[in-house]
Amino acid sequence: MHMIEADLQNTFRALADPTRRHILKRLSDHEMSIGELAQGFDMTRAAVKKHLTVLEQGGLISVQARGRERINALEPNGLKAASDWIDYFSGFWDERLGKLKSAIENEQSS
User: Fold this and answer.
1) Are 34 and 80 in contact (CB under 8 A)?
2) What CA–CA distances, in Å, run from 29 to 12, 87, 108, 110?
3) Which of 48, 92, 94, 97 is deepest in the core (most CB within 10 A)?
């Protein structure tokens, strides 16, 4: 598998889970430790850590050691590859909707 495709696959895998999407939302406000993140979920710190690992592998967060804590921060550029991929296909919809609009307008003016 091509390296960019593998990175994109990891990003979509990370985004596929609602818990991980919720973690990203919380990290969009400010960086947090595992303990701070775990407080918002009904799961163990170990389970939160597993989700964070998947998010890190997907390039969506960065993790930095500060003393004994690991601080997690949102990596907005990690979403860019997924956004670019989706944007590529949105062009097809724009073109098709434009053609549909033209067809309807032509039908109405006939």
Assistant:
1) no
2) 22, 25, 49, 54
3) 48
CA separation, residue 91 to residues 29, 84, 86, 96 (Å): 31, 11, 9, 9
Element (H, E) at 2: none
What architecture is the 3-109 domain classified under in CATH? Orthogonal Bundle (1.10)
Nearest Cα to Cα of residue 35 among 87, 71, 88: 71
Residue identified by tokens 């919720």 is: 22
DSSP-derived 3-state class of residue 34 = helix
